[in-house]
Design a protein that fits this description.
With 583 residues, the chain is α/β, with parallel strands linked by helices. The protein has four domains: 30 residues; 106 residues, Beta-Lactamase; 171 residues, 2-Layer Sandwich (Alpha-Beta Plaits); 253 residues, Alpha-Beta Barrel (TIM Barrel). It contains 22 helices and 21 strands. The longest helix has 32 residues. The chain binds ligand C2E and magnesium ion (2 copies). One magnesium ion binds next to strand 18. The site of one magnesium ion has 4 residues, from strand 18.
Length: 583
């Protein structure tokens, strides 16, 4: 056989062509099988919307009889799409860049699903775009989940900021509103009036007619209050029968007085609830920003003090705050004088209350709580004398004595070989601002010999937020020494979460107010849950204050709270009694 035989040459060239075709088919099959392995639909579309290639996932969405154009397959249309969404073919050709679009598509003509499609250009050698390759991902489930999450977050927010019984804003939202309103009023040189309102003898109604009637009454009171006010005013329920009203854009006290009169009058009208006709009245305390105080805590406290005065005046009336109201139960001057000598006379002493680990039931710490055996022998609770000690500065020497006493006591217990746990000591705002606080505490630890890890300082949120940079410095110093730091009464102040993260803290104590009715008050339940997860996110231990029942304990435990304090485990008691029971 000769090579230049034309027949032989033809056969050879046919063979080569077959082999080349085979190689092309192999390559195409290989490519197809790779594309089929991808779970997301892939399509190659040319400039005329013709689909040249698609993988198995894309084929699944093709109904029989469709023409092989993207608009027919994706949307069942016989013409290219216009208007209702970005056309990836036209967009990619126009921009020569990838685009990403989200669009809806009907599967099997009935089921609507959402796809996220990324389309990229396919270039010829001369640089022109001959088509696109698009990869789509079915995001229907993701979008549904996101929607559900958004709805549940909105619901949580709503619950966390509203009182479940009346639908009014709760304490959290009230504080929020005041935080916004105060700076605004300063800018515009307005005043704000805060009305603290408490129903008279509400407890009697609850006790005699039952809680359901009590609840109904609170709902109607809420409505009547709203009806007395302007849209821009706020009425919130703090809990129980306590309401707070914020009147914005006040120019003079008498405008607030007018509203008080209106409220007293409407609440004095009888309430018809089912078969009952109920009469009640209210006592209102009024404070004005900026006249009485410059901060949220302050205006609320002033209005509260004024409300107590209104109660003392025989109820069904209102009182405007006056400075001397802060100590309504005592003659302030008298108290101040006795209090000055109280520490030296040995009238101040400490009680100790256990802090408990909820999993093991074991003691993990104790809190020192100050007591005052007054000049007449009566026991005065700290809520009555600590604020006076604060205002007058007596807290500085008194607080130092409390720190010394607590640290010495704990060292003594540890030396006796009992259980060694940290002692928690409360620091008030004034003490926390004391310039020599670090030196004082260092020296007390040295003198008593108590290792710093056996001391925890309890500080309230509002006190920490006053001068954030300073707070961070002081806390960091204590932290470096090994002293524990707990935020006390968490939830009642208005911490900025941004700052909370910056403070070197160990523990967050949930205020008793929220624990008290945790089982019946859905909002408090939500708040407690949020605080627990917040603490965990910040890597802090979380302790619930004021746990009085097993039900509260079990509920908190279920929510992930790991520590508790309360009458359920032990009331605050004298040192000897504490050691006997717990150490
Ligand atoms: P706190 O630091 O939040 O202390 C816890 C308060 O809750 C204590 O009230 C305690 O007796 C009370 N408590 C504990 N468990 C329960 C419970 O199950 N039910 C109820 N209803 N109450 C419970 P206490 O001793 O009257 O102290 C009140 C506040 O006075 C303290 O609140 C703290 O802020 C302040 N305080 C007490 N001692 C000192 C002190 O030495 N220095 C300073 N600066 N403040 C102190
Ligand atoms: Mg405390
Ligand atoms: Mg507390």
């Amino acid at each position: 056989m000769r090579d230049d035989d034309p027949i032989n040459a033809l056969t050879a060239s046919n063979q080569e062509r077959d082999q080349a075709q085979q190689a092309l088919d192999d390559e195409r099959n290989f490519l197809q099988s790779v594309l089929d392995g991808v779970q997301d639909p892939i399509k190659v579309v040319d400039r005329d919307y013709q689909i040249l290639l698609m993988n198995r996932a894309a084929m699944q969405n093709v109904s029989s009889g469709s023409s092989m154009t993207c608009h027919s397959i994706n949307y069942g249309r016989d013409k290219p799409c216009t208007g209702d969404h970005v056309c990836p073919v036209r967009q990619v050709i126009a921009t020569r860049k990838s685009v990403q679009i989200t669009h809806e598509m009907y599967i099997n003509d009935t089921e609507k699903r959402f796809f996220e499609t990324k389309a990229s250009p396919l270039f010829k050698d001369d640089g022109s775009v001959w088509g696109i390759i698009e990869v789509s991902r079915d995001i229907t489930i993701r979008l549904e989940m996101e929607e559900k999450l958004r709805a549940s977050e909105a619901k949580q927010r709503e619950l966390a900021h509203h009182d479940a019984l009346t639908g009014l804003p709760n304490r959290l939202m009230l504080v929020d509103r005041l935080n916004q309103a105060l700076p605004k009023a300063s800018r515009h040189h307005h005043k704000i009036a805060v009305l603290f309102l408490d129903l008279d003898k509400f407890k009697n109604i609850n006790d005699t007619l039952g809680h359901d009637v009590g609840d109904d009454l609170l709902r109607v009171v809420a409505q009547r209050l709203k009806d007395c006010l302007r849209e821009s005013d706020t009425v919130a329920r703090l809990g129980g029968d306590e309401f707070v009203v914020i009147l914005e854009e006040i120019h003079h006290q008498h405008e607030a007085v007018k509203v008080c009169r209106k409220i007293l009058e409407t609440l004095y009208q009888p309430f018809f609830l089912g078969e009952h006709e109920i009469s009640t009245s209210a006592s209102i305390g009024v404070s004005l920003f900026p006249d009485d105080s410059h901060d949220v805590d302050g205006v609320l406290k002033c209005a509260d003090s004024a409300m107590y005065r209104a109660k003392e005046q025989g109820r069904n009336n209102f009182q405007i705050f006056e400075t001397e109201m802060h100590t309504s139960a005592f003659d302030r001057i008298l108290m101040e004088n006795s209090l000055r000598q109280a520490t030296e006379r040995g009238e101040i002493f400490l009680h100790y209350q256990p802090l408990i680990d909820l999993t093991s039931g074991k003691l993990i710490g104790c809190e020192a709580l100050a007591r005052w055996r007054g000049p007449d022998g009566e026991l005065i609770p700290p809520a009555a004398f600590i604020p006076v000690a604060e205002e007058t500065g007596i807290i500085i020497p008194m607080g130092k004595w409390i720190l010394q006493k607590g640290c010495r006591q704990n060292k003594e217990w540890i030396d006796k070989g009992g259980k060694a746990v940290p002692i928690s000591i409360n620091l008030s705002a004034r003490q926390f601002k004391q310039h020599d606080l670090i030196e004082m505490i260092t020296s007390i630890l040295q003198k008593t010999g108590l290792p710093p890890r056996y001391l925890t300082l309890e500080i309230t949120e509002s006190c920490m937020m006053e001068d954030v940079d300073d707070t961070i410095n002081v806390l960091q110093h204590f932290h470096d020494m090994g002293i524990g730091i707990a935020i006390d009464d968490f939830g009642t102040g208005y911490s900025s979460l941004r700052y909370l993260q910056k403070f070197p803290l160990n523990m967050l104590k949930i205020d008793r107010e929220f624990v008290k009715d945790i089982l019946s008050n859905e909002a408090n339940h939500t708040i407690v849950q949020a605080v627990i997860s917040l603490a965990h996110n910040l890597g802090l231990a979380v302790l619930a204050e004021g746990v009085e029942t097993v039900e509260q304990q079990d509920f908190l435990k279920k929510k992930g709270c790991e520590q508790a304090q309360g009458f359920l485990y032990g009331r605050p008691v004298e040192a000897a009694q504490f050691a006997e029971k717990w150490l």
